Amino acid sequence: MWKDPSVAYQAEYIWLDGYQPTPMLRSKTKILHDEVSEPPIWGFDGSSTEQATGEHSDCVLRPVFQCPDPIRGGRNMLVMCEVLLASSLRPHPSNTRAACARAEKKHADAQMWFGLEQEYTMERANGTPLGFPPGGGQPAPQGPYYCGVGTNRIFGRDIVEEHTQACIDAGLAISGTNPEVMPGQWEFQIGPLGPTAVGDQLNVARWLLQRIGEDYDVLISFDAKPQTGDWNGAGCHTNFSNLAMREGYPAIIEAVEKIGANYMELVSNYGDGIEERLTGDHETAPWSEFSYGVSHRGASIRIPWQVEKDGRGYAEDRRPNANCDPYTVARLITETINSPKKPAKKAAKKKAAAKK
Predict the structure, then answer these.
(1) Could you tell me the CA-to-CA distances from 342 to 111, 318, 335, 339 in Å, in that order?
(2) Domains of the chain, earliest start first
(3) pLDDT tens by residue, 229-248
(4) Do the beta carbons of residue 81 and residue 15 sit within 8 Å?
(5) Distance (Å, whole) CA 120 – CA 82
(6) What is the bridge-based pairing of β-strands 174-179 and 185-193?
(7) Confidence of residue 353 (pLDDT cuts 50, 70, 90)
(8) Considering the entire predicted model, what is its pTM?
C-alpha cells in the first residue's frame, strides 16, 4: 500500500543487549506515519544480541521513553525501549529496568532523586585516548587537564559541544559537562530524576554520544580503567536522595550507614572492572572497604560540604563505574536506603564477612 512520504518520520528504537559483563546499546529505525499516535512494540533478532537462541530468536522492544531526535531533526524521535520475551511479553532476563521500576513503585513515597555523573574517554580507532601520542608513549602527567582550557590540555571539545547541544535539543535533563583528570576524558551529568527516568535518559545520552563520535571517527569508551598506570579511571558518581534526606541531615547519615551495612552487594553490581578502578588511589576508596566523609573524594560515599552546612540534601556514591547499569545502581540504592534498618549485630556480621 502506497504511503504519503510527507507524513512519514523516523523513530530510532534503542535498547540494551544481553552481552556480559557489560551490555551494549543497540538501535534500529522504524518508519512511522501520521496515523500512529505512539511508537508501538517492535520485534528484533535476539540471537544476534545474546538475548535468544536461533531456534527461538524473536524478542520484543517496548517503548518506555521518547524524545526528539536532535540529529535527524524534524518530527523524528529517539525511543528508549525495554526488552520483553516474545512468548509472554514479560521482562527478558536481561531487562534490569523492570526490576528498577518495581523498586521505584514500592518506594514511591520516598520520592527518590538521582543525578548521575557520566565519565567517558574519547579514543582513536586503535584504542589510544585523545591527547596521548598516536604512536605510543605518555603525555604530560595529570594536573592541567581537569576543567582545563587550551591546546595540549583539552582534546575532543568539538564532540562535547555537539553532544551537549544534542542532549538539550532532545529535552534531556543534562545539567553540566566538564573535562576530566586524564587527557581525552570528559564528563556529563544527567538529573535529578527518578530511578527509572535517570536510567532512560542516561542511556539515550550515551547513545547520542556514541552516535556523534561516529562522525569524528572517535570511539567513546566507558571502560572503568581505560589506561593503566598513574591515570584516573572513569566512574559514574551517583548522587542520590530521598525526601527525608532533602529535609534533614540525620536521614543522610542513616541512608549512608545502611549502604555501609550492605556495601559489598552494591559494589559488586556497580560495573565491570571495579577492582581495577577502586584501588584507594586516584580519588577512590578501595573496592573491598567502605567509608564516608564530608567533602572526602577518597571515601566510598562523599557528603558535600554544602549539605553538611545546610543540614539537608543528598550524598554521592563514588563507586559506580562509567560502564555501570544505571537501572541496577538506582534500584540497589533505592531498596537499600528505604528498607527497614537491620539490627546492628547482623549488619556488623555481614560487613565482617564481606571483608574476609
Answers:
(1) 22, 23, 13, 9
(2) 5-94 (3.10.20.70), 112-355 (3.30.590.10)
(3) 999 999 999 999 999 999 99
(4) yes
(5) 24
(6) antiparallel
(7) very low
(8) 0.93
